[in-house]
Design brief:
The protein has 27 helices and eleven strands. It is α+β, with helices and mostly antiparallel strands and about 675 residues long.
Length: about 675
C-alpha cells in the first residue's frame, strides 16, 4: 500500500477522533498524525504533526514530549502515593514515614520561609572561617558529604580495566554553567548567558549577606574561578571517550598533580584515610586545579564556595534564593516561563533522594509481572535479531565477529525493578527539615558509593529508580535496564499489536543493545572491561561508517544558527539506527512470514515505523533546543525519527518512497 492510500484513510480517522486528552494513552495513536503531510517528505511531521499541535509547551516547562507526558502520568501516581504517605498515622510503614515526611517537609513552604537561611549558617560560618588555603581540603570534604558540587566530583566507579571491582573516582566538576565550553564560546548568545550568570551570582551573594557595593565585584571573581576550572576540563564530546575518563593512579600521584590541595586531609574528611589509589581524570584538570588554588586569593575561593553551597540547596530554600536559581537555570537557560507546581518539584525530590523506597510503592500500583514476561520475550527476539545481523556483516572479520557475539550473549537484561530493594534504615528523615533531609539524603547516597571502594561490584544494583521514564545500557556491567516507568504507553502496552510494540519499546531495546557496539560502548568487552577487541582493519571499517552518521546529523539545524553536534550525538544516533533495524528484523521473525491484518488502515510495517516515530514527538523552547544541541548527547526528536528512517529501505518500501525524496538518502549510513 502506498502512503497516499494511508493518508486518505487517515483523514477519516482524524474526523472522528476523540480529543487526545480524553483518550487512554496507546502505543500508536492515529489522532497524533498529520494527514496533510507526506511521509516521504517529512516522516516526523506525518507521524507527529497532530501531536505537536495538541501539545504546546506549557509555561512551566522547557519542552513537552512523549517521554514527558508519560513522566507526568507517572508523577501523578507518585503524587497520590506521597500525599497519602505524608499523613501521620500509627499504621505508616517505615518506608511510608520516610517518603511521606520528606515530601511533607518539601511542601511546607511556610516552615521553609520561616527558617530563612538559617540552615546554611553553619556551613557559611565554616567557609568564612577559613584562615588559609591549607584549610580548603577539609571544608571541601564537608561540602562534598552534603552533595555540594565544588572544585571536583568525588565518589566511586567500576575500574574500567577491571570491571569486577570498584575504585575511588575524582573528576572535573564545580562549574555552574552547562559545560566547560560555555565559559569560552565567543558567539553573542554565549556571551549574553555568561553575563546573566554573573548577574545571578551577584544577586545570590547579596541574598547571602554580601554588601551590594562589593557583590558585583564578587560575582566577577566567582566567574573567574569557574572559568579557571573550565580551562582544562573536557568538553562534552571529549567526555564521551572512555579512555579520557580513565587515569587510575596511586593517591600520592594525585597529590603530585595538585600539591597545593591537602589530599590527605580531604580523604580523611571523606572517611578514607588509607585510600591507596584513585581514578583521577582528566589529569590536566587536576594539574590546573592545583595551579589555581595557588594563584587565586583565598577570599575569592570563599565567595565561590558560598555560591556553590546556596545554588545546590536552592530548591529547598525560601523564594529569595529559590526564585533566583529558577530565573537563571530555568528561565534563561531553558526558556521556562513559570515555576511548576511545588508538589511536582517535591515528588521529584523524593524520587531523587529516596528513589527505591518510593519505587517500591510505585511498583505495587503501576507494574504487572505480565509486562516483565512480555519484555523478556522481546529481549530474546531482539538478541536473536542482532546475533544474525552480526553474523551477516560483510565489513567485519571473523575474529571481531566472535568477540562481538560473545559480548552480545553476555548482555544482561534488567526489567522493571531491583530484585533486592535498597535499605534506607540508616537515613534520618526529619519532618520539617527540608534542607537537612536533602543534605542527609545526599550524604547517605555518597556514603553508599564510598562503601563500595575496593569491593566486588554488585551486578544486581540499579542506577535508575523504578518510576523513571528511560532506559540504559551500562558498559562496565554489560547490561540493559528498562525501569517499570517506561513500560507503559506510548512505549509499551500488553494490549498493543506486535508491530506497534516492536516499533516503540522494541526500538528502545534495540537501541540499548546497540549501545554496546556504538563508538564508545564498542571499546568495552563482554566482561565490561575497557579493552580493544577489534582488529585494526575492522576498527577502521567501523570508524568510516560512523563518520557517515556524524556527517549526516551535523547538517541538521537544532535551532538557528546552532546545528546538531554529530560527534556529541554519535553514540545515540548509532544506537537509534541499529535499534530500529534489529527491532524491525525481530518483528519480521515474530510474524514468521504471515501478513498481519491492517489496523487503522496501516500495514504492520507502517505501524512499526509510525510507533517508532511517535515515541519522539516533542515541542521545545528555542532555549532548550540550544542547550540540547550544545550539551546533550541526544539529537532532537525530529532528527531521531527522520534521521533513522531516511537510511532504511524497509521504511521506504513500507510508504512507497522514491529516490530523490527527502526520506530517501542518496548516501545511506549503516553500521549495524
Amino acid at each position: 500500500m502506498t502512503h497516499s492510500v494511508a493518508r486518505t484513510l487517515l483523514v477519516l480517522v482524524f474526523a472522528v477522533a476523540v480529543p487526545a486528552a480524553a483518550q487512554k494513552p496507546v502505543v500508536l495513536d492515529p489522532a497524533f498524525l498529520d494527514p496533510q503531510a507526506d511521509p516521504c517528505q517529512d516522516f516526523y511531521q506525518y507521524a507527529c504533526g497532530g501531536w505537536i499541535r495538541q501539545h504546546p509547551v506549557p509555561a512551566d516547562r522547557a519542552s513537552r514530549s512523549s517521554f514527558s507526558l508519560l513522566q507526568e502520568r507517572n508523577r501523578d501516581i507518585l503524587h497520590d502515593i506521597l500525599e497519602k504517605a505524608a499523613v501521620p498515622s500509627p499504621g505508616r510503614s517505615a518506608i511510608e514515614q520516610k517518603i511521606g515526611d520528606h515530601y511533607a517537609s518539601c511542601m511546607d513552604e511556610k516552615a521553609i520561609e520561616a527558617r530563612g537561611l538559617a540552615p546554611l549558617q553553619e556551613d557559611l560560618r565554616r567557609i568564612a572561617g577559613l584562615q588559609d588555603k591549607a584549610g580548603l581540603a577539609p571544608v571541601i570534604a564537608h561540602l562534598h558529604n552534603q552533595g555540594v558540587n565544588a572544585l571536583f566530583n568525588f565518589g566511586s566507579n567500576q575500574d574500567a580495566k577491571d570491571s569486577s571491582r570498584s575504585v575511588a573516582s575524582a573528576s572535573q566538576g564545580g562549574m555552574g554553567l552547562s559545560s566547560s565550553e560555555a565559559y569560552f564560546a565567543d558567539d553573542p548568545k554565549s556571551a549574553e548567558i555568561r553575563e546573566k550568570y554573573v548577574a545571578y551570582l551577584q544577586k545570590l551573594l547579596e541574598r547571602l549577606g554580601e554588601p551590594a557595593a562589593t557583590a558585583a565585584a564578587g560575582a566577577r571573581k566567582v566567574m573567574a574561578v569557574e572559568t579557571a576550572l573550565a580551562k582544562e576540563a573536557l568538553s562534552p564530546v571529549e567526555r564521551r571517550k572512555p579512555e579520557n575518563r580513565y587515569n587510575l593512579v596511586k593517591a600520592e600521584a594525585l597529590a603530585a598533580l595538585a600539591p597545593s590541595f591537602d589530599w590527605k586531609a580531604y580523604f580523611t574528611g571523606m572517611g578514607l584515610p588509607g585510600l591507596s589509589e584513585i581514578n583521577a581524570a582528566p589529569p590536566a584538570y587536576f594539574r590546573q586545579l592545583g595551579e589555581q588554588i595557588t594563584a587565586i586569593p583565598l577570599d575569592d575561593w570563599k565567595l565561590y564556595l558560598r555560591t556553590r553551597l546556596a545554588t545546590e540547596l536552592a530548591t529547598m530554600l525560601p523564594p529569595a534564593i529559590a526564585d533566583l536559581r529558577f530565573d537563571f537555570f530555568e528561565r534563561t537557560l531553558r526558556g521556562v516561563r513559570e515555576d511548576p507546581p511545588r508538589w511536582e518539584r517535591c515528588v521529584e525530590a523524593v524520587d531523587r533522594d529516596l528513589g527505591e523506597a518510593l519505587g517500591q510503592k510505585y511498583v505495587e500500583v503501576a507494574f504487572g509481572e505480565k509486562s516483565r514476561e512480555r519484555m523478556d520475550e522481546m529481549v530474546v527476539a531482539l538478541r536473536k535479531a542482532l546475533e544474525r545481523d552480526i553474523q551477516e556483516l560483510d565489513w567485519m572479520g571473523p575474529a571481531t565477529q566472535k568477540e562481538a557475539q560473545t559480548k552480545l550473549a553476555r548482555i544482561r537484561p534488567k526489567v522493571g525493578y531491583p530484585k533486592t530493594w535498597r535499605d534506607y534504615s540508616t537515613l534520618q528523615i526529619v519532618r520539617g527539615d527540608a534542607v537537612g533531609n536533602r543534605q542527609r539524603a545526599r550524604a547517605f547516597g555518597l556514603q553508599r558509593r564510598l562503601d563500595k571502594i575496593g569491593k566486588p561490584v554488585d551486578l544486581e544494583e540499579w542506577t535508575m529508580t523504578p518510576p523513571t521514564v528511560n532506559a540504559q545500557y551500562r558498559p562496565p556491567t554489560n547490561e540493559i535496564n528498562f525501569p517499570a516507568g517506561i513500560l507503559r504507553p506510548p512505549f509499551f502496552d500488553l494490549q498493543a499489536d506486535d508491530a506497534a510494540n516492536f516499533g516503540a519499546i522494541g526500538a528502545v531495546i534495540g537501541h540499548e543493545m546497540t549501545h554496546g557496539f556504538d563508538d564508545s560502548g564498542r571499546k568495552f568487552d563482554a566482561a565490561g572491561n575497557l579493552r580493544d577487541w577489534w582488529t585494526p582493519e575492522d576498527a577502521r571499517e567501523f570508524e568510516e561508517r560512523a563518520a557517515c552518521v556524524d556527517r549526516q546529523y551535523s547538517e541538521y539545524v537544532a535551532v538557528d544558527p546552532v546545528k546538531v553536534n554529530g560527534k556529541l550525538t554519535l553514540g545515540e544516533n548509532l544506537a537509534d539506527l541499529g535499534g530500529v533495524r534489529i527491532a524491525y528484523r525481530a518483528l519480521q521473525d515474530t510474524l514468521a512470514g504471515k501478513e498481519a491484518p491492517k489496523r487503522d488502515g496501516f500495514t504492520a510495517d507502517q505501524r512499526f515505523f509510525l510507533a517508532f516515530a511517535q515515541t519522539w514527538c516533542s515541542n521545545a523552547t528555542p532555549e532548550a533546543l540550544r542547550q540540547q544541541a550544545l550539551t546533550n548527547p541526544h539529537s532532537p526528536g525530529r532528527f531521531r525519527a527522520n534521521g533513522v528512517v531516511s537510511n532504511l529501505p524497509e521504511f521506504q518500501r513500507a510508504f512507497g518512497c522514491k529516490a530523490g525524496q527527502p526520506m530517501v538518502r542518496e548516501n545511506v549510513c549503516r553500521v549495524w
